[in-house]
Amino acid sequence: MNATDHDDLERIRDRVLAAGRYGQGPGRKLEIRGGGTKAFYGREPTGKPLSVAEHRGIIAYEPTELVVSARAGTRLDEIESLLGRYGQHLPFEPPRFGPGSTLGGAVACGLSGPRRPHSGAARDLVLGVRILNGRGNDLRFGGQVMKNVAGYDVSRLMAGALGTLGVLLEISLKVMPRPEHECTLSWPMPLSEALERLLEWSRSPWPLSGTLHDGEQLFVRLSGAQPGVEAACRALGGDRLGDTESTALWSRVRDHRHPFLAEEGELWRLAVPEGTPPLPLPGRWVTTWGGTERWLRTEAATEIVREVVAASGGHATRFRGGPRSGNVFHPLSPGLARLHARLKQAFDPARVLNPGRMYPEF
Length: 362
Description:
Blueprint: H1 9-22, E1 30-33, E2 48-51, E3 58-62, E4 67-71, H2 76-85, E5 88-89, H3 103-109, H4 116-119, H5 122-125, E6 126-132, E7 138-142, H6 154-157, E8 167-174, E9 176-177, E10 181-188, H7 191-202, E11 208-213, E12 217-224, H8 226-236, E13 239-240, H9 243-254, H10 259-262, E14 267-271, E15 284-288, E16 293-297, H11 302-311, E17 315-320, H12 334-347
Parallel strand pairs: 1-2
Antiparallel strand pairs: 3-4, 4-8, 5-9, 6-7, 6-8, 10-12, 10-13, 11-12, 11-15, 14-16, 14-17, 15-16
Protein backbone atom coordinates (compact mmCIF):
# COMPACT_ATOMS: atom_id res chain seq x y z
CA MET A 1 0.00 0.00 0.00
CA ASN A 2 1.25 3.48 -0.86
CA ALA A 3 2.18 5.67 2.10
CA THR A 4 -0.36 8.28 0.97
CA ASP A 5 -3.30 5.81 0.92
CA HIS A 6 -6.01 6.63 3.45
CA ASP A 7 -9.55 5.38 4.06
CA ASP A 8 -11.61 8.32 5.32
CA LEU A 9 -15.00 6.64 4.96
CA GLU A 10 -16.11 6.80 8.59
CA ARG A 11 -15.60 10.55 8.90
CA ILE A 12 -17.37 11.20 5.60
CA ARG A 13 -20.30 8.96 6.53
CA ASP A 14 -20.67 10.63 9.93
CA ARG A 15 -20.90 14.05 8.25
CA VAL A 16 -23.52 12.88 5.77
CA LEU A 17 -25.58 11.13 8.45
CA ALA A 18 -25.51 14.23 10.65
CA ALA A 19 -26.59 16.45 7.75
CA GLY A 20 -29.39 14.07 6.79
CA ARG A 21 -30.80 14.01 10.31
CA TYR A 22 -31.26 17.77 10.25
CA GLY A 23 -32.70 17.76 6.71
CA GLN A 24 -33.60 21.26 5.62
CA GLY A 25 -32.16 22.92 8.73
CA PRO A 26 -29.99 25.98 8.14
CA GLY A 27 -26.30 25.30 7.79
CA ARG A 28 -26.81 21.55 7.39
CA LYS A 29 -26.13 21.38 3.66
CA LEU A 30 -22.84 19.92 2.45
CA GLU A 31 -20.53 21.26 -0.23
CA ILE A 32 -18.54 18.25 -1.46
CA ARG A 33 -14.93 19.06 -2.26
CA GLY A 34 -12.07 17.08 -3.77
CA GLY A 35 -8.93 18.90 -4.86
CA GLY A 36 -10.82 22.17 -5.30
CA THR A 37 -9.56 22.68 -8.85
CA LYS A 38 -13.06 22.81 -10.37
CA ALA A 39 -14.73 24.96 -7.72
CA PHE A 40 -15.49 27.50 -10.48
CA TYR A 41 -17.72 25.03 -12.32
CA GLY A 42 -21.49 25.05 -11.95
CA ARG A 43 -23.60 27.28 -9.74
CA GLU A 44 -22.23 28.83 -6.55
CA PRO A 45 -21.57 26.10 -3.96
CA THR A 46 -23.57 26.26 -0.73
CA GLY A 47 -23.31 24.44 2.57
CA LYS A 48 -20.50 23.44 4.88
CA PRO A 49 -17.45 21.99 3.12
CA LEU A 50 -17.12 18.20 3.14
CA SER A 51 -13.68 17.26 1.87
CA VAL A 52 -13.09 13.85 0.34
CA ALA A 53 -9.49 14.67 -0.61
CA GLU A 54 -8.10 12.49 2.19
CA HIS A 55 -10.10 9.45 1.04
CA ARG A 56 -7.44 8.34 -1.40
CA GLY A 57 -5.45 5.45 -2.74
CA ILE A 58 -5.47 3.02 -5.65
CA ILE A 59 -7.43 -0.04 -4.55
CA ALA A 60 -6.86 -2.38 -7.48
CA TYR A 61 -5.16 -2.29 -10.84
CA GLU A 62 -5.16 -5.13 -13.33
CA PRO A 63 -3.11 -4.10 -16.39
CA THR A 64 -4.08 -7.23 -18.31
CA GLU A 65 -7.77 -6.55 -17.61
CA LEU A 66 -7.48 -2.83 -18.45
CA VAL A 67 -9.21 -1.79 -15.22
CA VAL A 68 -8.19 0.53 -12.37
CA SER A 69 -10.14 1.14 -9.14
CA ALA A 70 -9.31 3.99 -6.78
CA ARG A 71 -10.79 6.08 -3.99
CA ALA A 72 -12.29 9.38 -5.03
CA GLY A 73 -9.61 11.57 -3.47
CA THR A 74 -6.80 9.91 -5.43
CA ARG A 75 -4.97 12.44 -7.56
CA LEU A 76 -5.11 12.04 -11.31
CA ASP A 77 -1.36 12.42 -11.67
CA GLU A 78 -0.83 9.48 -9.30
CA ILE A 79 -3.18 7.29 -11.35
CA GLU A 80 -1.65 8.34 -14.67
CA SER A 81 1.84 7.74 -13.31
CA LEU A 82 0.94 4.17 -12.38
CA LEU A 83 -0.80 3.51 -15.68
CA GLY A 84 2.15 4.96 -17.58
CA ARG A 85 4.49 2.32 -16.16
CA TYR A 86 2.43 -0.27 -18.03
CA GLY A 87 1.99 1.78 -21.20
CA GLN A 88 -1.63 2.63 -20.41
CA HIS A 89 -3.68 5.78 -19.80
CA LEU A 90 -7.15 7.18 -19.08
CA PRO A 91 -8.53 7.45 -22.63
CA PHE A 92 -11.02 10.24 -21.89
CA GLU A 93 -8.03 12.49 -21.12
CA PRO A 94 -9.53 14.17 -18.01
CA PRO A 95 -8.73 17.88 -17.65
CA ARG A 96 -6.56 18.89 -14.71
CA PHE A 97 -7.16 22.47 -13.73
CA GLY A 98 -4.47 22.24 -11.06
CA PRO A 99 -2.05 19.78 -9.45
CA GLY A 100 -4.66 18.66 -6.91
CA SER A 101 -7.16 17.32 -9.46
CA THR A 102 -8.72 14.10 -8.19
CA LEU A 103 -10.42 11.12 -9.77
CA GLY A 104 -13.66 11.86 -7.91
CA GLY A 105 -13.72 15.44 -9.17
CA ALA A 106 -13.03 14.33 -12.74
CA VAL A 107 -15.93 11.87 -12.69
CA ALA A 108 -18.32 14.13 -10.74
CA CYS A 109 -17.81 16.95 -13.24
CA GLY A 110 -17.92 14.56 -16.20
CA LEU A 111 -15.43 16.60 -18.20
CA SER A 112 -13.29 15.04 -20.93
CA GLY A 113 -10.29 16.22 -22.91
CA PRO A 114 -9.41 16.34 -26.63
CA ARG A 115 -9.69 12.55 -27.15
CA ARG A 116 -13.35 12.46 -26.09
CA PRO A 117 -14.98 12.07 -29.58
CA HIS A 118 -12.48 9.39 -30.52
CA SER A 119 -12.00 7.38 -27.30
CA GLY A 120 -15.19 8.02 -25.32
CA ALA A 121 -16.43 10.35 -22.60
CA ALA A 122 -15.79 10.02 -18.88
CA ARG A 123 -19.15 8.30 -18.37
CA ASP A 124 -18.35 5.76 -21.09
CA LEU A 125 -15.32 4.51 -19.15
CA VAL A 126 -16.97 4.24 -15.71
CA LEU A 127 -17.48 0.57 -14.85
CA GLY A 128 -18.61 0.89 -11.25
CA VAL A 129 -18.85 3.24 -8.28
CA ARG A 130 -19.25 3.18 -4.53
CA ILE A 131 -21.17 6.13 -3.09
CA LEU A 132 -22.86 7.48 0.00
CA ASN A 133 -26.34 8.73 -0.78
CA GLY A 134 -28.03 11.57 1.12
CA ARG A 135 -29.22 9.13 3.79
CA GLY A 136 -25.67 7.95 4.45
CA ASN A 137 -26.28 4.55 2.84
CA ASP A 138 -23.11 2.90 1.50
CA LEU A 139 -24.07 1.75 -2.03
CA ARG A 140 -22.22 0.01 -4.83
CA PHE A 141 -23.23 0.02 -8.49
CA GLY A 142 -21.71 -1.66 -11.53
CA GLY A 143 -18.54 -3.69 -11.31
CA GLN A 144 -15.12 -4.01 -12.89
CA VAL A 145 -16.08 -5.39 -16.29
CA MET A 146 -18.33 -4.04 -19.02
CA LYS A 147 -20.59 -7.11 -19.00
CA ASN A 148 -21.72 -6.31 -15.43
CA VAL A 149 -23.66 -3.34 -16.77
CA ALA A 150 -27.34 -4.26 -16.87
CA GLY A 151 -30.58 -2.35 -16.51
CA TYR A 152 -30.39 1.28 -15.37
CA ASP A 153 -26.70 2.17 -15.27
CA VAL A 154 -26.50 4.12 -12.01
CA SER A 155 -22.69 4.11 -11.95
CA ARG A 156 -22.49 6.17 -15.14
CA LEU A 157 -25.29 8.37 -13.89
CA MET A 158 -22.80 9.73 -11.34
CA ALA A 159 -20.56 11.07 -14.12
CA GLY A 160 -21.44 14.74 -14.47
CA ALA A 161 -23.90 14.79 -11.54
CA LEU A 162 -21.60 17.18 -9.63
CA GLY A 163 -22.10 15.26 -6.40
CA THR A 164 -25.80 16.09 -6.24
CA LEU A 165 -26.82 12.41 -6.12
CA GLY A 166 -24.13 10.96 -3.90
CA VAL A 167 -20.66 11.35 -2.45
CA LEU A 168 -18.32 9.38 -4.68
CA LEU A 169 -16.12 7.06 -2.60
CA GLU A 170 -14.59 4.68 -5.12
CA ILE A 171 -14.56 4.48 -8.92
CA SER A 172 -13.60 1.67 -11.29
CA LEU A 173 -12.59 2.76 -14.78
CA LYS A 174 -11.73 1.16 -18.07
CA VAL A 175 -8.19 2.09 -19.16
CA MET A 176 -6.55 1.68 -22.55
CA PRO A 177 -3.06 1.18 -23.99
CA ARG A 178 -1.27 4.43 -24.69
CA PRO A 179 -0.97 5.05 -28.45
CA GLU A 180 2.22 3.72 -29.96
CA HIS A 181 2.78 6.80 -32.10
CA GLU A 182 1.35 10.31 -32.47
CA CYS A 183 1.79 13.35 -34.66
CA THR A 184 0.11 16.74 -34.97
CA LEU A 185 -0.48 18.59 -38.24
CA SER A 186 -1.56 22.20 -38.76
CA TRP A 187 -2.98 24.36 -41.53
CA PRO A 188 -3.87 28.09 -41.63
CA MET A 189 -7.56 28.32 -42.56
CA PRO A 190 -10.83 30.00 -41.52
CA LEU A 191 -13.27 28.20 -39.24
CA SER A 192 -15.83 27.55 -41.99
CA GLU A 193 -13.30 25.64 -44.08
CA ALA A 194 -11.94 23.82 -41.02
CA LEU A 195 -15.43 22.57 -40.11
CA GLU A 196 -15.95 21.23 -43.62
CA ARG A 197 -12.63 19.38 -43.54
CA LEU A 198 -13.26 17.97 -40.09
CA LEU A 199 -16.66 16.64 -41.13
CA GLU A 200 -15.09 15.00 -44.18
CA TRP A 201 -12.22 13.49 -42.17
CA SER A 202 -14.57 12.19 -39.46
CA ARG A 203 -16.08 9.92 -42.09
CA SER A 204 -12.71 8.60 -43.19
CA PRO A 205 -10.42 5.95 -41.64
CA TRP A 206 -7.86 8.52 -40.46
CA PRO A 207 -6.77 7.81 -36.83
CA LEU A 208 -7.90 11.16 -35.39
CA SER A 209 -7.41 11.71 -31.64
CA GLY A 210 -7.75 15.47 -31.21
CA THR A 211 -8.74 18.58 -33.16
CA LEU A 212 -8.40 22.29 -32.46
CA HIS A 213 -9.20 25.45 -34.40
CA ASP A 214 -7.78 28.45 -32.57
CA GLY A 215 -9.44 31.10 -34.74
CA GLU A 216 -6.72 31.10 -37.37
CA GLN A 217 -5.25 27.62 -37.62
CA LEU A 218 -6.53 24.06 -37.64
CA PHE A 219 -4.58 21.48 -35.64
CA VAL A 220 -5.21 17.74 -35.92
CA ARG A 221 -3.65 15.00 -33.79
CA LEU A 222 -3.31 11.47 -35.16
CA SER A 223 -2.64 8.48 -32.89
CA GLY A 224 -2.12 4.76 -33.32
CA ALA A 225 0.32 2.32 -34.87
CA GLN A 226 3.28 4.09 -36.43
CA PRO A 227 2.72 2.91 -40.04
CA GLY A 228 -0.91 4.02 -40.03
CA VAL A 229 -0.18 7.38 -38.42
CA GLU A 230 2.69 8.14 -40.79
CA ALA A 231 0.57 7.17 -43.81
CA ALA A 232 -2.19 9.50 -42.62
CA CYS A 233 0.28 12.35 -42.10
CA ARG A 234 1.58 11.97 -45.63
CA ALA A 235 -1.91 11.85 -47.10
CA LEU A 236 -3.27 14.84 -45.17
CA GLY A 237 -0.23 17.08 -45.60
CA GLY A 238 0.02 20.26 -43.55
CA ASP A 239 2.83 21.46 -41.31
CA ARG A 240 4.03 18.91 -38.78
CA LEU A 241 4.68 19.95 -35.18
CA GLY A 242 7.62 18.56 -33.28
CA ASP A 243 6.88 15.93 -30.65
CA THR A 244 7.56 18.26 -27.72
CA GLU A 245 5.48 21.07 -29.24
CA SER A 246 2.65 18.63 -29.98
CA THR A 247 2.57 17.24 -26.44
CA ALA A 248 2.60 20.75 -24.97
CA LEU A 249 -0.22 21.94 -27.24
CA TRP A 250 -2.68 19.19 -26.31
CA SER A 251 -1.76 19.42 -22.65
CA ARG A 252 -2.56 23.16 -22.70
CA VAL A 253 -5.89 22.53 -24.42
CA ARG A 254 -6.80 19.72 -22.01
CA ASP A 255 -6.00 21.72 -18.87
CA HIS A 256 -7.21 25.12 -20.13
CA ARG A 257 -3.74 26.61 -20.09
CA HIS A 258 -4.18 27.58 -23.74
CA PRO A 259 -4.17 31.42 -23.77
CA PHE A 260 -7.74 31.73 -25.05
CA LEU A 261 -9.15 29.26 -22.53
CA ALA A 262 -7.06 30.54 -19.61
CA GLU A 263 -7.82 34.25 -19.88
CA GLU A 264 -10.09 35.96 -17.37
CA GLY A 265 -13.73 36.70 -18.09
CA GLU A 266 -16.83 34.81 -19.11
CA LEU A 267 -16.25 31.64 -21.12
CA TRP A 268 -19.08 29.76 -22.83
CA ARG A 269 -18.93 26.07 -23.73
CA LEU A 270 -21.29 25.20 -26.57
CA ALA A 271 -22.11 21.64 -27.64
CA VAL A 272 -23.58 21.34 -31.13
CA PRO A 273 -24.29 18.48 -33.59
CA GLU A 274 -21.60 17.33 -35.97
CA GLY A 275 -21.53 19.37 -39.17
CA THR A 276 -23.04 22.51 -37.61
CA PRO A 277 -21.75 25.56 -39.55
CA PRO A 278 -20.33 28.63 -37.77
CA LEU A 279 -22.95 30.09 -35.46
CA PRO A 280 -24.24 33.67 -35.93
CA LEU A 281 -22.92 34.95 -32.61
CA PRO A 282 -20.42 37.78 -32.16
CA GLY A 283 -17.17 37.14 -30.34
CA ARG A 284 -14.00 35.05 -30.41
CA TRP A 285 -13.99 31.29 -30.86
CA VAL A 286 -11.91 28.20 -30.21
CA THR A 287 -13.30 24.93 -31.58
CA THR A 288 -12.51 21.37 -30.48
CA TRP A 289 -13.97 17.85 -30.75
CA GLY A 290 -14.22 17.98 -34.54
CA GLY A 291 -16.43 21.07 -34.36
CA THR A 292 -18.97 19.73 -31.85
CA GLU A 293 -17.46 21.59 -28.87
CA ARG A 294 -17.08 25.35 -29.28
CA TRP A 295 -15.66 27.81 -26.78
CA LEU A 296 -16.93 31.37 -27.04
CA ARG A 297 -16.07 34.72 -25.51
CA THR A 298 -18.84 37.18 -26.31
CA GLU A 299 -20.72 40.19 -25.03
CA ALA A 300 -24.00 38.78 -26.36
CA ALA A 301 -26.74 38.32 -23.76
CA THR A 302 -27.25 34.89 -22.21
CA GLU A 303 -30.70 34.58 -23.77
CA ILE A 304 -29.31 35.25 -27.26
CA VAL A 305 -26.47 32.73 -26.87
CA ARG A 306 -28.83 30.00 -25.73
CA GLU A 307 -31.46 30.80 -28.35
CA VAL A 308 -28.94 30.54 -31.20
CA VAL A 309 -27.36 27.35 -29.86
CA ALA A 310 -30.72 25.71 -29.21
CA ALA A 311 -31.80 26.50 -32.77
CA SER A 312 -28.82 24.44 -33.97
CA GLY A 313 -29.87 21.49 -31.81
CA GLY A 314 -27.21 22.14 -29.16
CA HIS A 315 -26.89 23.50 -25.65
CA ALA A 316 -24.79 26.17 -23.93
CA THR A 317 -23.05 26.23 -20.54
CA ARG A 318 -21.49 29.24 -18.86
CA PHE A 319 -18.32 27.30 -18.13
CA ARG A 320 -16.34 29.92 -16.22
CA GLY A 321 -16.85 33.53 -15.17
CA GLY A 322 -20.02 35.55 -15.17
CA PRO A 323 -22.91 35.25 -12.72
CA ARG A 324 -23.32 31.91 -10.96
CA SER A 325 -26.93 32.33 -9.94
CA GLY A 326 -29.80 31.26 -12.15
CA ASN A 327 -29.05 28.72 -14.88
CA VAL A 328 -25.34 28.23 -15.47
CA PHE A 329 -26.20 25.08 -17.40
CA HIS A 330 -28.63 25.05 -20.29
CA PRO A 331 -32.23 25.04 -18.99
CA LEU A 332 -33.83 21.60 -18.94
CA SER A 333 -36.98 20.69 -20.82
CA PRO A 334 -39.98 20.04 -18.52
CA GLY A 335 -39.62 16.28 -18.98
CA LEU A 336 -35.91 16.23 -18.15
CA ALA A 337 -36.47 18.55 -15.19
CA ARG A 338 -38.99 16.11 -13.74
CA LEU A 339 -36.59 13.22 -14.25
CA HIS A 340 -33.76 15.10 -12.52
CA ALA A 341 -36.07 15.99 -9.64
CA ARG A 342 -37.12 12.36 -9.19
CA LEU A 343 -33.51 11.20 -9.16
CA LYS A 344 -32.61 13.82 -6.57
CA GLN A 345 -35.55 12.74 -4.44
CA ALA A 346 -34.52 9.08 -4.66
CA PHE A 347 -30.84 9.60 -3.84
CA ASP A 348 -30.92 12.68 -1.62
CA PRO A 349 -34.46 13.35 -0.31
CA ALA A 350 -33.31 15.88 2.33
CA ARG A 351 -31.29 17.73 -0.35
CA VAL A 352 -28.10 17.92 1.67
CA LEU A 353 -25.58 17.03 -1.08
CA ASN A 354 -24.34 19.96 -3.17
CA PRO A 355 -27.82 21.55 -3.25
CA GLY A 356 -28.34 23.87 -6.20
CA ARG A 357 -24.93 23.17 -7.72
CA MET A 358 -26.47 22.12 -11.04
CA TYR A 359 -29.90 23.74 -11.07
CA PRO A 360 -31.67 25.97 -8.53
CA GLU A 361 -34.46 23.43 -7.97
CA PHE A 362 -32.15 20.66 -6.78
